[in-house]
Amino acid sequence: MSELLTECILTFYEDELLCRILRYNYFYFDQEEQKSILAVIHSLLLEQETYWTRDAFVWPEVLKYILEHKSIVLHGFVNFRLQSYSQLLDQLVDEAVSKYIIEKEYSEFIHLLKMYIDTQPSTVPFLHLIYVNGESILLDENHKPISLTNNAVKAKYLSDITFSANDYALNTILNLLPARLEVHLIDPEDEFIHTLKSIFEDRIHLCQDCSICTTYKRFQHVTI
Predict the structure, then answer these.
(1) What is the distance between the alpha carbons of residues 58 and 21, in angstroms, rounded to a whole number?
(2) Can you give 140-199 as a three-state secondary structure string?
(3) Sign of torsion, CA 210 215 221 223?
(4) Rounded CA gap, 57 and 61, in Å?
(5) 131 by DSSP, 3-state: which?
(6) CB atoms within 10 A of CB 209
(7) What predicted TM-score, i.e. pTM, was given to this entire model?
(8) Closest CA relative to residue 93, chosen from 57, 55, 62, 50
(9) Domain housing 166
């Protein structure tokens, strides 16, 4: 019976509680933004660890109550007896809002950079980016190394969205604005590579099997 009632609470009452918390704590988000945040919350709820955590907060309280009472009014029970569960949902909403804000800032950052490169002429025809050990090495069309713009004053394209050492690689690429960016993937794609693909779109080409890739893969293997 406790398992059944717990499932009922998670299925039929949880969304109502989440929406109430979201409206109360984050009333300054408009309706569309709240819908987007709720979608983020649902994605977090799909994580198995999150589900079992919620179950662990609800089930013991239900069991305790039905052992001591002959009847239960679920609506009142959910609103007044599940304080720890409500606090857990409150934390979940906070986490979802933080994630939503970061994703929104990221999208705006990408949009601004795309607008910039679409309105500026390219200054170099070709640029190689070798991505190895999570860092970027830049070469010009003649395979000569290019120094990264690591001066914070000149790094005008950096934002709060950071990629560590790759911040300056991104800034250098945006300063040079290549007509074509050849990315040699020695490491698997990650957030930085996804960002480059989002910004440069049809200007970028990913490569994993050319003479440059082979050379750096051999070097990486020897280094290891």
Answers:
(1) 18
(2) CCCCCECCCCCCCCCCCCCCCCCCCCHHHHHHHHHHHCEEEEEEEECCCCCHHHHHHHHH
(3) negative
(4) 7
(5) strand
(6) 10
(7) 0.77
(8) 50
(9) 121-223
For position 166, which CATH number holds? 3.30.420
Task: Identify whether residues 106 and 125 lie together within a single domain.
Answer: no
Q: Pairing state of beta strands 178-185 and 124-132?
A: parallel
pLDDT tens, 20-49? 999 999 999 999 999 999 999 999 988 757
State whether 92 and 126 are in the same domain: no
Q: Convert the pLDDT of each residue in 107-138 to its tens digit.
A: 998 999 999 998 999 999 999 999 998 889 99
DSSP three-state, residue 46: coil
Domain count, the chain: 2
Residue indicated by tokens 């994580």: 47
Reference 88, options 5, 14, 12; nearest CA is: 14
Is residue 99 located within the same domain as residue 17?
yes
Q: What is the edge-to-edge ordering of all strands in the sheet holding 135-139?
A: 135-139, 124-132, 178-185, 204-207
* 64, 8 contact by CB (below 8 A): no
Residue 133 DSSP class: T
